[in-house]
Amino acid sequence: MAQKFDQFKTTINEISDIYNAIALLSWDQQVNMPHGGSENRGYVLSTLERIGHQKITSPEFGQLIEDAAQEVSQLDPESDEACLVKVARRDYCKRIKVPARWVVENAQVTTNAQTVWEEAKSKSDFGLFRPALEKVVALKREYASFFSPYERIYDPLLDDFEPGMKTSEVQAIFNVVRPEQVALIKAIAGRPEIDDTFLHVPYDEKAEWDFGEDVITFFGYDWDRGRQDKSVHPFTQSFGTGDVRITTRFDPERAVSLLFSTMHESGHAMYDQGFDKSLQRTPLSTGASMAVHESQSRMWENLVGRSMPFWKFFYPRLQARFPGQLGKVDLDTFYRGINKVEPSLIRVEADEATYNLHIMLRLEMEIGLLEGALEVKDLPEVWNVHMQDYLGIAPSNDSLGVLQDVHWSWGMIGYFPTYALGNLVSVQLWEAMLKDIPDIYEQFERGEFLSLLKWMGEKIHRHGAKFEPQELIQKATGSKIDPQPYLRYLKNKYGEIYHL
Amino acid sequence: MAQKFDQFKTTINEISDIYNAIALLSWDQQVNMPHGGSENRGYVLSTLERIGHQKITSPEFGQLIEDAAQEVSQLDPESDEACLVKVARRDYCKRIKVPARWVVENAQVTTNAQTVWEEAKSKSDFGLFRPALEKVVALKREYASFFSPYERIYDPLLDDFEPGMKTSEVQAIFNVVRPEQVALIKAIAGRPEIDDTFLHVPYDEKAEWDFGEDVITFFGYDWDRGRQDKSVHPFTQSFGTGDVRITTRFDPERAVSLLFSTMHESGHAMYDQGFDKSLQRTPLSTGASMAVHESQSRMWENLVGRSMPFWKFFYPRLQARFPGQLGKVDLDTFYRGINKVEPSLIRVEADEATYNLHIMLRLEMEIGLLEGALEVKDLPEVWNVHMQDYLGIAPSNDSLGVLQDVHWSWGMIGYFPTYALGNLVSVQLWEAMLKDIPDIYEQFERGEFLSLLKWMGEKIHRHGAKFEPQELIQKATGSKIDPQPYLRYLKNKYGEIYHL
Q1: Among A153, B49, B60, B420, which residue has the least CB neighbours within 10 Å?
Q2: Burial class (CB in 10 A: 0-12, 13-18, 19+), A370
Q3: Quick check: B390 and B266 in contact, CB under 8 A?
Q4: pLDDT above 70 for A14
C-alpha cells in the first residue's frame, strides 16, 4: 500500500494497542484485582483513556484518514484496506461531534449514577436513583442533538451499538414479534406446569465447571487462545484473536445456569477468536454489532445448548457426573425441564419464550424518555403496567422491577434492543446454515459441532466489523433482519414441548 | 505547592500510570495469558513502552523538572517534594544520555539473546550462546561509555540497580566476606552430614500453599491489597501500595521450597505495601534499591523463616498438616534439615552459607568482561575454576554452570551483586532492630510478627525511594553497608548447628 495508508495503519495499530491495554486493566479489575487496588486502577484507566481519546480525536488523525481514503479509493470497497478506512472515518466523524466537555460531564454523571443505583437497588428505592437517571437522560438527549438532523432522537444512540440501524426498523420488527410472543406465552400458561425440581437441588461447582469446559471444547473454543475465570457477572473479553477470555459464575440457587452461561460466553468468544488475522490491531477486529455478537452467544446457548440433539449426546455424560441429581431423570424430562417457560420478573433469568418481551418493554421506555413522552418519575408505574400486559406479572418492588438492570446507570441507553435482535439473528443464520448443512442435528447427536463453527466462521466471524450488521446478515442469509425465522422456531419448539 | 511543581507532578503521575499498565500487562503475561496471546501482547507492550519512553525523555519534561527544582529549592531536602524532584532529575539525566538508537538495538539483541540462551541451556552448549552474549557485553560497554568519565566501567551498570553505589565499595565488602564464607563452608564440610530426607518425600501442593498463606498472614501481608498466584518463576509485582501481588511455584522434587518462596516474596511485597501513600503514582513509590528490596525478602525467608523461634510456633502446625511426612520428625531435626549446608551448583537452590559465593563469582566475571580482562569465550573455564575454589565443586556441563541464569541474556549485567548485598543488609537491619525490640524472639515463639513489620515499615518501607540505599541504611542502622553483622550471624547460626 501507499505511504499515507501505511502511516494511518501504524497510528490505528497504536490506538488499538492502547485500548487493548485498557481492556486488560478492566478485565483484571473484574477478575483478579484485590479490593485495595481500586483507587490506583481508576487513575491508570483514566490516564490511558485520556491518551487514547486524544489520539482518536486529534486533527492529525483525521487528516491521516482523509489522506488514506484517497489512496484506497481505487481499491475494491470490500477489501480490508477500504473497509478499515471507511470504519475509521465513520467512527472519527462521530467522535469529533461530541465536545470534550460532554465526555467529562458524562463520565462524572455515570460514575455517580452507578453508585447511587447500587444503593437504590439494594434499598428498592427508585426515588434515590431518580435524580441521577434524570441527568443521564438529559445528557443522552444532548448527545443525540450533536448528530441532528436525525429521523428519530433514539437513532444516534442505537447507532453506537448497531451501526446503520434505525429506530423505525427495530420498532417494525418488534411490532411483528411482540403479539406473537405474548400469544405464545398465554397459550403456554394454559398448559400443565413442567417439573424442573431436579434443577433446583445442590450441584457441585467444580464438577459443573469441568463439564462446561468439556462442552465448549467440543464446540471448538480454542483454549490455546483463551481461558475461563470467575467473576460477579459473566463476560467475554478479547485481547486480539490470540487471547479471548470468558468468565462465569456459580449461583447455588440456580446451579445449572453456570453451564448455560459458559456456553453463552463461548459463543461470544468463538466469534472473537474467528476474526481474520489480517484485521488484528484495528477497529475491524471486533464484532459487526452487539446484535450480531449476541446472535452467536444465544445460538450456542439456546439453539445448540437447549436442543434435543445436543443433549442426546451430552446427557448420558451429564448423568454420569451427577448420578445423585439426574440418575433417575430421563432425557425427555431433563430436556423439558431446561426449556420450561415461566414468566418471571428478572430479565437475566428469563427463558427463551419470554426474554424478548423484557427487552421490548425497555426499548419503549427508552424511546419514551428520549422523545419526551415519558418522564423518569413515571418509570416505575409504567414498568409495572407493561410487565402485566406482556408477561401477566408485576414486581412487588422496584428492585425486582425498574431498578434491576445496571445499564441505565452506565449511560447505556440504546443497548437493550440488541439483545432481542440477537435472538432473531441467531435463528435467521441458523435457517441459512441448515440449507448448507442439512444433517447438522445428526452431527450433534454424534458429538460433532465443528461444522457449525466453521460455517459461522466463514459467513460471519472472519469479516469482523468490515460490514454493517444489516449488510452482513443480508450477505449471509439473503435478507436483512427478519423476525419470521425466530417466530417459527419458538412456535415449533414450544408447540412440541407444551403440546400446543 | 507552586504551579510548575504541580504541572511536573501531574506529568509524573501520568508517566507512573503508563508504567503501572505495563506492569499489569507483564504480570498477566507471566500468570494468566494463554499461549496464543504472545504476539499481540508484544505489540501492546512495545507501544506503551514507546509512549512512556517518549514522555520520560522529552525536553518538555526535562524543563518541567528544572522549573520544579527551582520551586522546591527552599524546601527541606528530605521533603517528599524535594526528593521527588531530585530522583526525577537523576533518572532523567541518566536516560537522556542513552541514544534512542542504543535502546532499539539493545531491545533487539536481548530479545534474540533470550531465545538463543534458552536453546543453549537446554542443549548445554555455551558455543551457541557465545555470539549473542558477546553482543550483549559490547552493548553494555557502550552503555557505560555514555556515562564516562567514571571511576570503573562497571559503575554505571551497578548504579541502575544500586543508585549511588560504586564498584570499589562492593568489592571492598565482598573481599571481607569471601574468605570468611569459604572458610566456614570448609569447616562445615568436615562435620557429619545433616539428615534432611524428610524434606524429599511427596508433599501435597494445596496443603503447602495454604500453610504458606497462613504464615504470611501472620507476618502481616495484607490480602486486601494483594493475592498469590502461580508462575514459572516466583516474583512480586506491585500496582501501587493498594495492590501488591506475589507468585510462587510448586516443584515436587523440592516441595518445601514453595513455603520459603512464599515467605521470600511476601518480604518483597510487604515492602511495596509499606510505601507512604503520599508517594503514590511517582517514582518514589518503589524500593530504595534492589539490595534493600532483597534485604526484606531474605529477612522474612531466612532470618525469620529459617529461625528456631519461628518454628517453635509454627512447627506443631506444620506437623499437624503433614503428619505422614513430619509426625516422627522432632523440631530440632526439622530445624537442622531446613538449614543444611551443602555446596551445590545452582545458585537459586543454594543455602544461606554458600549463596553469596555464587554471587561473588558472577560479579568478578562481569567486571572482567566489562574491563576487558576476560573474554566471553573463556567464561565456562573460568566459571569452573572459580566454583572449585569457592565451593569445592564444579559442574559437569555448562547448563549446570555458566548457562544457568537468565540475567545476562536479558542484558542485566550489574544486578547480581544486589542479591549478596541484600543478605548483608538484612542482618545489619536485624541487629539494629534487636536493639529496639530485644524480646523479638519471644514474640515469634508466641506467633507475633507484627512488631518486626512495624519497625521495618518505620525505618525502611515508608521512605520508598526517597533516599539512596547507603543513605537509608545509614539512617536506619548508623552505618553504611557493613559485612560484619552478616558474618557474625552465619558463624553463630552454623557454629551452633554444626557444633563448630
Answers
A1: B60
A2: buried
A3: no
A4: yes
Residue B281: which region, alpha, beta or left (left: phi > 0; alpha: psi -120 to 50)? left
Residues B244, B273: contact at Cβ < 8 Å? yes
Residue type, B172: A
> Whole-angstrom Cα distance, residue B95 to residue A152?
56
Topology of domain B153-500, CATH: Neurolysin; domain 3 (1.10.1370)
Amino acid code (one letter) for B12: I
Q: Which residues pair with A244 in a beta bridge?
A: A238
Candidates A15, A43, A224, A231: best to mutate against B (most CBs of B within 10 A) is: A43
- pLDDT at residue A1 above 70? no
- pLDDT tens per residue, range B151-165: 999 999 999 999 999
pLDDT band at A21; cut points 50, 70, 90: very high
The pLDDT tens digits for A67-99 are: 999 999 999 999 999 999 999 999 999 999 999
Helix (H) or strand (E) holding B248: strand B244-248
> How many CB atoms within 10 Å of residue B295?
31
Q: Tell me which residues of A are annotated as active site.
A: 265
Do the beta carbons of residue A259 and residue A249 sit within 8 Å?
A: no
How close, in Å, is residue B52 to chain A by CA atoms?
A: 11
Whether residue A403 contacts residue A121, with contact meaning beta carbons closer than 8 Å, is answered with: yes
> Please, are residues A290 and A422 in contact by the beta-carbon 8 Å criterion?
yes
Closest listed residue to residue A463, CA positions, set A160, A90, A164, A80: A80
Integer CA distances (angstroms), B275 to A161, A263, B193, in order: 44, 44, 43
Residue A2 is predicted with a pLDDT of 76
Please measure the distance between the N-terminal and C-terminal CA atoms of chain A and give it in whole angstroms: 61
> What is the average pLDDT value for chain B, to the nearest integer?
96
CA distances from B352 to B41, B185, B299, B345 (A): 38, 11, 11, 14
Of A374, A413, A418, nearest in space to A109 by CA: A413
Fold of A154-500: Neurolysin; domain 3 (1.10.1370)
What confidence tens digit (pLDDT) does each residue in B376-423 have? 999 999 999 999 999 999 999 999 999 999 999 999 999 999 999 999
Sequence-distant (≥ 6) Cβ neighbours of residue A230 within 8 angstroms: A31, A247, A248, A249, A250
Pairing of strands A244-248, A236-238: antiparallel
B residues 2-61 near A, CB within 8 Å?
A: 13-14, 17-18, 20-21, 24-25, 28, 32-41, 43-44, 47-48, 51
Q: Are A463 and A472 in contact (CB under 8 A)?
A: yes
B228 pairs with which residues across the strands? B246
Instruction: Tell me the residue ranges of DSSP E strands in A111-267.
Output: 228-230, 236-238, 244-248
CA distance A302 to A355: 12
What's chain B's Rg over C-alpha atoms?
23
pLDDT for the residue B1: 56
CA A273, A277, A282, A288 torsion-angle sign: negative
- Number of neighbours of residue A495 by Cβ within 10 angstroms: 13
Q: Does B277 touch chain A (CB under 8 A)?
A: no
For residue A363, count CB atoms less than 10 angstroms from its CB and return exposed for 0-12, middle for 13-18, buried for 19 or more. buried
DSSP assignment letter at A299? I
Half-sphere exposure of B200 (CA within 13 A, CB side): 5
Contacts of B35 (CB under 8 A, 6+ apart): A224, A225
What DSSP assignment string belongs to A477-488?
HSSS--SHHHHH
Is residue A474 very low, low, confident or very high in pLDDT (cuts 50, 70, 90)? very high
Per DSSP, the three-state class of B237 is strand
Residue A436 burial class via C-beta count within 10 angstroms: exposed 0-12, middle 13-18, buried 19 and up: exposed
With CB atoms and an 8 Å threshold, state whether B44 touches A17.
Answer: yes
